[in-house]
Design goal:
- By secondary structure, the chain is an alpha+beta fold.
- The protein has three domains: about 350 residues, 2-Layer Sandwich (Nucleotidyltransferase, domain 5), CATH 3.30.420.380; about 100 residues, no CATH class; about 110 residues, Alpha-Beta Plaits.
- Helix 1 crosses helix 3 and helix 4 packs across helix 7.
- The protein is elongated and about 135 Å long.
Amino acid sequence: MARSCGIRIGPRRYEIVVLDGSPKKHQISAYYSGEFPTDPENAEAEFAAALRKTAKEHHIPHENVGLVIDSGHGAFRRIQLPFSDQSKIEQVLKYEVEAFLPQWSIDDVVVDFLPISEGEQGTELLVSAVPKSELGRLLRIAERAGIEPLDVELETTALVNAASTAEIFVDESSQLLVHVGDLSTSVVVVESGQVREMRVIHIGALSQDAKKKPVEDEDSPGSESAEKSSAEVVEDDPAERELVFLENPEEPDPAQTSRRLDQAVRRIRRELGRTISGGRTTHPVDAIYVCGMDLPGLIGSDVQGVPIYLLDCFDEDGGQPADGYGGLVVAYGAAIRQLGGGVVVASLRREELRYTGAFERIEFPLAVACLLLTTLLGVICILQVKQTQWQRDGGLFWLKSSNNYMVDDLAKGRVGLLNPAPKELSDYAELIDSETGDPDRTPVESLQFIRDDLAARVLGLRRTLGQDADVSKPQSAFVATMLVLDVLNSTAGARPSLRRVRSVYQKGKRGNTDSVVVYLDITFFAENSLRGTEDYEAFARGLQAEPWFVEIDKKKSVPLEGDVGISLTNVPVTVDVAKYVAAGNEVAEAGKM
């Protein structure tokens, strides 16, 4: 059974969901949510320790894990490109979006994109950007906890994948998906099941536990927030927010906490109203679905007449808790995607995993090549060992014996075969060195004669030493067939008809030479059977007159019906092709008719 895990790591809290099953039918086998320690001096180590402890206690799998990070770390922009090819988009994406991210250096961020629409003008993209430093910090926390995420995404995309299982998307209608996080709130606009907008509101359920850089009260008259038009959708920028956790927070005042929570709810409702008013959707928003941390007074109310519901994407008896399951939705969406479900594919590790993916594509061919190379090296090693063993067990002795046979062994008083030089060569060398020279050959012919004689003597020595590697080739069955048919064609007055011809090479045994047997199924047409027999005899005499002929086994003939000739079956004719070649004929010329 397939298993996957989704983990959301926020600034203060984390949630874990483990699924068993398939994208269509699955069960929550484990879930957990907890808070990180708030020690600012050693936050990363404390976060990793808390996550590692939870993973060990709840038997969280270390593979097939999807990591979700706070949307407050990123920014969302919409851009238009004049093409739709994904490979081209990835090549130019950073250059195109650089002008829309003045708060960051483009080399310091990781960008991802989601196609919104395609048309004649090109493709409209929803681009998300996250600083590499923040992404690297969260990955280090997961790795130090013993967890290696396959991929990383923002809360917005995980929210969409989780909502896709709840069957809340309806054609010709729009919905708002909202996730209330620790210090930020993610908002996604969906129309007819397609993502249209993503944005982040930099205020969350735990914002009251953090001190903000002194600014005007958000609700005071004349503030920037109050001056913004209610119909204008403005995306908050993470660079505008500087939140620091209190090192020694005092006991919170209930009244002050309630006031801040109410202030957060009003801010979120106001931003949701701006999103509805300034939305780029064809159909009006008919519902708002909220998940994440609970804010009193948010779920069950409405914004500009649009009701707010709790996002319940879990099956009945699916293993989720009875209460407080809204905080697990985003982690559940990441786990669904790792099982192969979801409708949005996001990847914030695309640059990091690009080289890994390229290696995976050549991993199998490379492994096969290494295996073949190892096999080749093994064979070479075996051959080298065999050769060394042969030299050690007798080859070296044979070489020494051959040298002693050919060359002088002065220590033992033995004269080699090459000393003295053959008398015939010495006499001929003196002849051509004399004033008269060889009267029968020119100087060039004399050198040719000496070379041929030396070659013949070298061949004889090799045969004597057992080094002759010449192997006689088998006689050509085709040449033998052509020789026999050439004689048949030249038989005067005969009208032969071949029904079948078959040639078989026979290796000589018991001192006999090699030969080829040509088997003929032949008919001689004539005025009568007597005339046909005469033609057959003439053919046999023609064969016997050839120097290459060996034998013919005359079979009994059968008169044809109507006495118009004779028929013979499987007549064997034995031919010695070597005699034909020895007579000075070229094999390629055999069979000319």
